Amino acid sequence: MRIWVDLTNTAHVLVLRPLVDLLEREGHEVQITARPLSHTLELLEDWGHAHTVVGGHGGASRLGKARAAAERTPQLVRFARPRRFDCALAHGSTDLPPACRLLRIPNTTMFDYEWAVLQHHLNCRLASRVLVPDAIPAERLRRYGARPPKLIRYPGLKEEYYLSDFEPDESVLVDLGIDPSRPLCVVRTAPAYALYLGGSENELLPRLLRHLSQRLEAQTVVLARTDAQRELITQLGLERVTVPRRAVDGRSLVAFADTLVSAGGTMNREAAVLGTPVWSVFEGRPGGVDEQLVREGRLRLLVDPAELQLNGKPPAKAAGSANRRERRDPAALLRLALPWIE
């Protein structure tokens, strides 16, 4: 079968790569379209999979996003029409469902954060199938028109599927000049371009970075999403704070870290799965997945940087907790995502 996958954000490359690999091993033809945003294209280039770049990101405003979608959706239609795809898949793409509706292509939209209201009002109504983790209460999705049988909920976290065969690579520490004998804190900046954050930067992060810089034994790596964020952090002039200029192996970095502080979502959940203590400074409304992780004690909310303690390798990490993590079969997720494949 001919299958179309649209990638519109950095995390989507990680989430859907195992499913694409499975499809291709089963003999299906997969074609990928991608939108330039953050490290999306860099991760695709590192993967080495052929892809077609279509459109651009419209920024954090409603008007900018509407303009970008108005331009990109017709471009996707022109891309897909002659290729006669049998079905399509995306994680959070706002452009794939309308393009597929116009072309009558069965398609699935996936997501694991339910409060991107404008996005889900569009995607859930236009997609053929909506696939979410079962941590999201079904009643929260009814407002978007997502009800069974269109709505499908899968067990666990998406990270448990795409990290199922992942093993951390120590070369990321070497590449960044990290001393593994000293405490390491990884910091992930906010997706300030997300509509649900209104284009704002997280005001707690500069205070946090100054606090970490004052800890002489601590090393900090900041994974910024944009050039503007990298420049702002560099201008702080802090010691022992590293800001990589391009995409790095974030999963391995998180696996080796003593703690993660993140203003996003996916990396928080990667840390929770890999056994790394994680603090959230996310400023949006908490979603069902994060609420569950907080209840389980696998995610904590950071209000004051002084709460953060770095006391060397946690015992659970030293015992190899990443190897004891929940590992779920990506093939099971694929069958739920694309019931049309033969």
Keywords, separated by commas or semicolons:
342 residues; alpha/beta; Rossmann fold; 2 domains; seven-stranded parallel sheet; 14 helices; 37% helix
Topology:
Elements: E1 2-7, H1 10-25, E2 29-34, H2 40-47, E3 52-53, H3 62-80, E4 87-91, H4 96-103, E5 107-110, H5 117-126, E6 129-133, E7 151-154, H6 158-162, H7 171-176, E8 184-188, H8 204-213, E9 219-223, H9 227-235, E10 241-242, H10 250-256, E11 259-262, H11 266-274, E12 278-280, H12 288-295, E13 300-301, H13 315-318, H14 330-337
Parallel strand pairs: 1-2, 1-4, 2-3, 4-5, 5-6, 6-7, 8-9, 8-11, 9-10, 11-12, 12-13
Helix pairs in contact: 1-2, 3-4, 4-5, 10-11
Explain the overall architecture:
Helix content is 37%, strand content 15%. The protein has 342 residues and is of the alpha/beta class. The chain folds into 2 domains: 173 residues, Glycogen Phosphorylase B (Rossmann fold, 3-Layer(aba) Sandwich); 154 residues, Glycogen Phosphorylase B (Rossmann fold), CATH 3.40.50. The strands form 2 sheets. Strands 3-2-1-4-5-6-7 form a 7-stranded parallel beta sheet, with helices on both faces. It has a 6-stranded parallel beta sheet with strand order 10-9-8-11-12-13, sandwiched between helices. The longest helix is centred in the N-terminal third of the chain and has 19 residues.
Please provide the ordered H/E string of secondary-structure elements: EHEHEHEHEHEEHHEHEHEHEHEHEHH
Number of helices: 14
The tally of domains stands at 2
Q: Largest sheet, if any?
A: 7 strands, parallel
CATH fold group of the largest domain: Rossmann fold
What would you say the CATH architecture of the largest domain is?
A: 3-Layer(aba) Sandwich
